Amino acid sequence: MLESAHHRGRVAWATVVGALLAALVIAFAGCGGGGGFKTATTGGGTKTSTTGGGRVDACSLLTTGEVAAAGVAGAKPVPGKAATGGVNCNFLAKGPGLPKSVTVIVNTAGGKSYYEQLKALAKSPKPISGLGDAAYLDSSSTPVQSATVGLYRGNLYLSVGGNISPKDAQSLAAKALARVP
């Protein structure tokens, strides 16, 4: 019996680590992207100026205060980019135990197509209304609480998710969408 409990604990831990790694891989590999922008973090948030191309600075869409209110206190925004044409921002809080984070992903080309592809990869997407042309919520409480909202509006794809509640994911997604130029 002791060996079985130990094995279950190792399997649960491996599942948590695997889920976090998968989220980071999707965020960094699938949704980076260039753009001419400058970012400066100040007090409660991030200020951005774009230099053309219709690209969006994902770190400008949420403030550190809003991320902290969702349960990820002390998170620092880290922008990312990749060849796909999109951008992301990882708000990562370091501390004891498992790291907590919120990730914002933005792609300004092929919104509906990108949305459909990522929705197909979600474990249990549930349609939600009031955000963009279409939106879904994908959440889980095991092995750790996590939730992601994916949506599109025209050519824009936006995703906000992390170690947060479904309610916080929807609230942060609405705030981020409202700030997209």
3D architecture notes:
With 181 residues, this protein is of the alpha+beta class. It has one domain (2-179). 33% of the residues lie in helices and 32% in strands. The longest helix has 29 residues, at 2-30.
Query: How many structural domains does the protein architecture include?
Result: 1
The biggest beta sheet is recorded as: 7 strands, antiparallel
Order of helices and strands: HEEHEEEHEEEEH
Beta percentage is 25-35%
Mean pLDDT: 75
Side-by-side strand order of the widest sheet:
3-4-5-9-8-7-6
Helical content (DSSP H or I, runs of 4+): 25-40%
Q: Quick one: how many beta strands?
A: 9
First-to-last CA distance: 58 Å
Overall body shape: globular
Spans of at least 5 consecutive residues whose pLDDT stays below 50 are 1-53
With helices defined by DSSP (H or I, 4 residues minimum), what is the helix count? Answer: 4
Rg over CA atoms: 16 Å
Estimated structural class: alpha+beta
